[in-house]
Every structure is written in structure tokens, then in C-alpha cells.
């Protein structure tokens, strides 16, 4: 350990630390709102105060970034990467290569002119610790990643010898996604609604419509009478939505520009991006779950979204670091999906023998709706001006909800499948969705714990839920007969305990 | 079902009862505090009503519900895994394969020390809190179980060929 060659990152990485702090500031800004409000109130008497604070923060951030860069040291050993950081709180982090879940080479836009990259690796620690080394040159980052992923190869070299000895730049499978596909991806994964949700609040706060738009329209558009006012308004709304829709597609085009998937032996790699290029790779043994997503738009376009997940501590989920970190193929057509399923050792879709939910699973929600609908009808009958309208509204609402309940029940399915691929892989899969079709696939031997749950209602009907906790999240197989659930629990526990394959 | 369920120590029942009594006492203390400071709306809701409801709830939780919870709590150790069943109303049977346990923790609160019992918490990968906590164990047995489990985990065969099937 003593002869570690500590290295400092290039000066330009100050920008990385600066941006990191800025990102932190933006994510934490909601916590600072009370402080900012206080500053604002105090600032009424002292105009200079907000400026002084902003300036002070700026100076502090810059000094901090410079110091962080000065004190950030890394060393690459044969089996681990060491990182030393921090001015006052010294941190010394050691990460073994074999514990790395996935590696990402991120050519950030501000590093691209300097041909530098950020290498980030996820470990399996419970805090979801992520290690980032900024300012590596591309060849160095690639070599490092190669070394990290190769270290995992060692214990099973006989298995993949034929594929790993192939030259580095030659992949077994390569798939390039053209622009037309990426536009489809933009339509499928449209952030329109997210954008709307973000925009609606400030717009509603500004009273834009009442204060500016309406007077302007009244003053300037005299030809506008009440008859076609609604046409204009709805036209403007539609145009606004269309612009947002296009913006969302452009975001997809930028993030997934030039998306290329390459698979070499057990290594999966996806590279994409117009401004910042991200290259994400993981090794097959680290796979914990495969999610196949098809929402309504995807079904109309005949495409799917494939997401592959590795070990993810539940605490880290929903945190700021999700999103770009995951291995996603945003648009996959049926042909390639069939091929990709084989590569992931998933069974053919025709092989899956879907098990449906019991009819009795409908009973609970239906009874609730049946009880609540008359109550709502009674309230609306007296509350609304016309009692009949109230009854009709309730009936429609009931019909809608009941249809959703039935659709959810009908589309739910589960199955236990063993694939025909070489080597064989045992999976359990749960399918759900109302209008969408989502399949969650989990390798069976990677299950961490198995629950059989039974509340009073289920006890009455003689059912149990089987809840399987995997390292990538939990999944429940609902409404199994009690004995069946207990039998599966025992069988799987034994099977997993006797299975000594690597699961992490 | 060949799982040999083992009940927790009998003092675990008293522990549960005392614990629920304590929480009820805290509630009573809050009401009493409200009464003496005059916040309590005695004219709307007479104090003896509140007292009666409190007594019924206390009896229900401390006598009936606590012992029922005790009745449905059991653990089992098979060669393959640890099993635990819990819950009087919402029953839950959890199984954790031994080779998935990441670390084991011995826990004992102040109240548990008074009753001479302890908990043993087992953690698996990828989850936030404790995954399987066996309550109401005799401390010596809990420690012994912990050592046993750790030995089993440490002696797990290392990963073999990945295409051994």
C-alpha cells in the first residue's frame, strides 16, 4: 500500500468541482428558501445585502472548488482504486474492482475541447457510494475501465475465454440507433408532462394571464369577439403544448444522439450524447433486473424501452444521482428486442406461460368502489344544481374506475421461466400495466429475501402475496393461494441457498 | 411445511405488554398535561369519557393485542435460511437464504435489558433498513446464533463457474 502513486487531476477539473457544487446548490435550494426569504425581507432596508451574499457565495464556491481540486488525489492499484480528498475532513476511499457494479465514462461538454473525461464507478456499498475521477484522458479512462472490468473476469476466465481474448475494438454485437429511432424515443419518453408540471406553478404565481395577456388582447385585437375567443385560446394552448413536445424530443435527441450499443462477451456498453458523451458499461454477472417498458405511445409506435438495473440500494433510489446513470435503451424495435432478449439470456416471449390473477382479486377493489359510488352519488345528488347530473357523473366515474380496475387485473401476470440460452438462466417475471405493458424480469438466484404477506382481507379469501426482494428492488406476486405461496417460499429459499453462483 | 418454528422467550410477551403500556402512559400524560394547563375542553368531552376510552384501549392493546402479537411471532433456522413470522393482524412470513446475509447485528434496548432479552438483526444487500430482526431472544443464545451465522456465511463456497447448470 505504501508505494501507491498518488496523482492529481488536471487544473481544468476545477470546472468539474465548481459545477458539482452548483448542482448541489440547485438541488438544495428548496431547503434554503426560508433563509432566502429572510434575506429578502432584511434586504428591503439594505439593498446591498443580497448582492453581498451572492458575491460571497460565488467567491466561496470558487475558492472551495480550487481547494477541492488541489486536495483530490487518486491512485490506481492492481486490484483497487484509491481516492484521497477533502481539506478539513480528510477522506481516504478504497474501492475494489470486483465490487464495481458499473462504470461510466462521461465526456462532459466542458471537457471535450481538452479531450478529457470523467470516469465514474458505482460500488455495491449500502450508501450507494459513487466514485468519480475527473480529468482523465480518454485512453487512460478506457484502460482503467478495462482493468476494472477485467479484474472481475479472473475467477471465471475459462468461461468467457474465447470472447475476452478477442481484440478490444471488436465487439460481438453492435447496434447503432439512427436519428429516426431517437425521435421515436423522444415521443415515447416525452418529458412534456414533467415540463408542464414544473412550468405550471410559476405561471400560476405570476398572474401572467390576468395582468398582461388579457389587457393586451383587449387593447390590440379589437376584431376579436367572444365567438372565436375560445378558438384562439385553445389554438394558443395547443401551440404551446406542441412546442413543449418538440422541446422534449430535442432533449432526447441531445442525450441519446448517436446511441451505440456494443456487447463483447459479458460486457454490455452503451454510448450516446451530442454535447456530453456518456459511455456506460456493466458486466452481465452484475445484472439484477431487466425492465421492458411499453407505454401507450410505445405500443402505437411498436417499440419498447429496455432498462437494465444493477444493485441499487433503496436509499439511493429517487435521489439526485438517478437518471443518466442507468443503462437504458430508449427505443428498441421488435426484431432487435428479440435478439437483445437472447443476449440478456431472457427466454423467448412465446415461451412465457403467463399466470393470471385469480378472479377473486377483483373483489376487494370492486367492493370498495361499489360502496363508495352510492355515497358519492348521494352527496352529488344534493350538492349539484341538477340531481340527475350528479347521478350521471357518479355513474360515469364509477364506470371509468371499475374499467381501470378490471384492466389492471386483466393485464397483471407473472411467470417463472427458464431460458434456453447458453448458459441457462432462471427468471421470474411480473407483467403489469393499465394501458402500458411493463415487464420486470429478475434472475431467480439473485433474490435476497422472500416474504409471504397476508392481511385480514386476504386471510378471509385464503390468499397471500409473495413479495420477492432483490437487490434492484422488490416485486410482488399477488393473490397466490396460501399453500402455494408458502411452498414457493420454501422451495426458492432452498434453491437460492444451494446456488453458489455469483450474484453480485 | 417442515419448518420447525421456535417461539421467542416468554418474557418477550411481558416486554411487549410493558412497551404498549408505556406508550399508553405517554398518551395519558399528554392528556393530563392538557387538563392541568386548561387546554383540555372538559365541557365538550368530559374527562371520564376520555379516561374510559383510554382504559379500554390500554386493556385491548396491552393485554389482548400484545399477547396475540407474541403468539404469532416465531422464528426458525433451517440449513438453508432464516425464517421469521410476525404480525397479529397483517401476517408476514419472511425467509432469507443464509448466503444472502451481509451482516448481523446484536441489539438490546434499555427496556429489553430489563427483561433479559435481545434482538438479532440480519441485513441483506440492496435494502435500506434491517431485513430480518428476530425479537425476544435470550442474549446468550442471540450471541451464539450470531457467531454461528457468521461462521456459516464465512464458510460459503466461493463463486464457481457461472455456467454450471
Automatic annotation (TrEMBL), chain A:
Keywords: Membrane, Transmembrane, Transmembrane helix. The keyword Transferase does not apply. It comes from the Bacteria. The keyword Transmembrane helix applies. Residues 70-147, 425-490 form the YdbS-like PH domain. The chain crosses the membrane at residues 25-42, 48-67, 192-209, 229-254, 360-382, 388-407. Signal peptide: none annotated. This is YdbS-like PH domain-containing protein.
From TrEMBL, chain B:
Residues 72-147 form the YdbS-like PH domain. InterPro entries: YdbS-like_PH. The chain crosses the membrane at residues 21-41, 47-67. Keywords: Membrane, Transmembrane, Transmembrane helix. Signal peptide: none annotated. It comes from the Bacteria. It holds the Pfam family bPH_2. This is YdbS-like PH domain-containing protein. It comes from Pseudidiomarina homiensis.
